[in-house]
Amino acid sequence: MNEDQLFARIAPLFDVGQFGEAKVLIAGCGSGGGQVALQLAMAGVRNFDLFDTDTLEAENVIRHVCGRRYVGQQKVDALADVLLDRNPAIQINKFNADLMECSDLGYRISQSTVVVLATDNEPTRYRINQLCVETETPFVIGRVFTRGIGGEVFGYRPNEGGCLACLESVLERTQFRDGIREIDLVSDDEREKIYGLEIAEIKDSPGLNVDIAFITCFHTRFVLDAIARSLPERPTHLPPIDNNYLVWGNRPVQPFQKNFEIQRISLQPQEGCLICHQGGTE
Questions:
Q1: What total of structural domains would you count in the chain?
Q2: CA-to-CA distance for 43 and 30, rounded, in angstroms?
Q3: Taking the CB of the first residue and of the last residue of the chain, which one, N or C, has fewer CB atoms within 10 A?
């Protein structure tokens, strides 16, 4: 089976060939990053750098694109195998490396069309944010809120909008995340009250796979938009996304008022941001 056959059904509707030369760096190959990578592969992306240090555990399987036969393998190896199963023409570089210690991360980012930021901790997020600003490389970050009640997606567009540091400063002054937090910001005591379970992986679980999938679909769409912006001619039937920040509510839990609620903003560089806009104005 060749690549033309793989994409035969969608080729008349979506020019997947335009994404073939893009290079995507996946920072974090967990349930979120893995799903985004697979969706990108099925959209025609053929070049990936995969970064993660974790091993796939049995409790990961129910939410991960990699199934039981991959348990015990490094996530970068397992995810690479899944991507190649979908399209053997894909080229993959695997890095079982700590993002905080990787000495050539800036170079790898500079060689990427876009970075998929899917890590679960602030230090790696802010390191990648700074490196992307320095190298003028777009990135898209997706985050799921506690209990899977919703999530958010933000796309950094060099010279067009603010960075992740700008976003955090704005969110401190708005209602967009009022009363909701990511699971990694919740204390152990609060996790125990929420989940009542002793297994750390389950307590840290942000929700069902379907809850995560809504966010990863938005995440993927923002990544495809970033790739499209880098092309000489934008793909047919892929109009640009005007806003660079989206909040999605899966169900009516504070602060969301209904199922499938969406909020959008266009984040501009913030005055005084030490990362992307020193001394500037909005």
A1: 1
A2: 20
A3: N
